[in-house]
Protein: LysR family transcriptional regulator
Organism: Aliirhizobium smilacinae
Amino acid sequence: MLDRIPLEAFRVYDAACRFMNFSRAGRELHITQAAVSRRIQRLEEQLGTKLFTRRGRNLALTPQGERLAQRVRATLEYLEESLEPFRGGGSETISIAASGSVSHLWLAKRLKDFDNGNPSVSVRLLTTDAPSELASEANDLVILYSTGEHLRWNLTPLMKEVLLPVASPDFIDKHRLDPVAISPDEIARLDLIDYERFNAHWISFRQWFARLPTPPKARITPRLSFSTYALAVDAALRGDGVTLGSIGLIADQLASGALMELGSQRLETGYGYHLGMPRYRSLTPGAARLHQHLLSGL
């Protein structure tokens, strides 16, 4: 059916739906009211259904027309967005992919700073924890959880993964804890906040305690468990308990005192977060500036 209906017909239909007035739709499209009416009538004939009804001078969509209007608007918006990288005028759109925790805790502020200094560059952030989507070559830049090697991406270290228990000052005061002298056994008996491990190499509380030189005897039973690491950190900031802090990701919260380290045991996992640029193609000027911006200050 689509091969018999020109794209123009859907553009006319979309305008008619937005204005609910054929004359105003025609003015936007630089055609006459009669031309809009003919195109809508032809579209109805091709689809075999009524799309509009008239109530006096007012137009209304039929149920079928309402469903089609929603789909046409979504499709045209998607097409408009897809064509954005090909527009002229000096504007450039670049894409970067990162996990939810990196996007929420580290990347968002740096992208805002970059945007303020680069008004001619538009950045599209893909937030996902799926390894295949993170490493997709459709992205211009990526931030990968890795040991530093990848077949398709040249990786530069952003931060090592060093894990330690952290809690808010309110939680520490409420439970009368000594954040320096507290032992792993005492930490294990507190309200632990954990998160789901979407990657086999991720470390949660059970693995963290198990890797200590002297693991605690208490059974590790988190009181809360969240679907993402960022949500676990947010819960710790609210004073709900103790979570594992990845030092690089929560550096701002540690520096401000919103979170405090508990004990002296730190675990360096051998993994970390790396900024990737394509191995087999050159960066665009905007992507190169963003790459440099994210590495500055490290």
In short: The radius of gyration is 27 Å. Residues 105 and 250 are 7 Å apart (CA to CA). Residues 2-85 form a domain with the Arc Repressor Mutant, subunit A fold (CATH 1.10.10.10). The mean pLDDT is 89.
